[in-house]
Amino acid sequence: MEKQINPTRMELLKLKKKLEVTIRGHKLLKDKQNELISLFIPLLERYKTVRQMVEENLITILKLYKRISVDMHDSDIQRELNVESKNLVVSYQKKLGIDIPVYEYDLNGKNDYSLENTNIYFDILIKNIKSLGMELIKLAEIESQITILVDEVKKSRRRVNAIENIVIEEIKIQIKSINMKLADLERSNTIRAMKSKEIILNKEKK
Hints:
By secondary structure, the chain is mainly α. It contains 3 helices and 2 strands; from the N terminus they run H-H-E-E-H.
């Protein structure tokens, strides 16, 4: 249902001010949307890089495991694989009014395995497993950040489109309607004034 607007000059001034504020707000939202996208694009590049590191590390670990399996039984390998870790800590950084998660996960640097029952390849394996753990946490962090930013970009885009295509257009239509009605009133007043003047002049002639 179309909102009824009083066709007055005061209402016209209010609508023009409202349009000005809405356009300014629309620009700020669009700027924020562009800044969100500028945060999002580098994250994609980082995600690709870290994912590639994870995949390469997994291949290396599998090769090392296969090499160690020549000298050790699987049960012995599983027993010696004991990488201690601290709990995952999640903190948040504020960027553009959005809470961006940051994961912290410190792996214990101690070698809690038998040096007598293992070889140099096992040392390398442990090192790679620790590295993989950090890379997986980083990958999960980036994925979380990307998900949040994508959602925010979608929300921002919906708001920008709604303001641009609905709110601003409605205000412009209301302003145009009042301008037309005021112009009609002005013409009517001009015609009435001219007729009144004509009547007065005719009376004076008589």
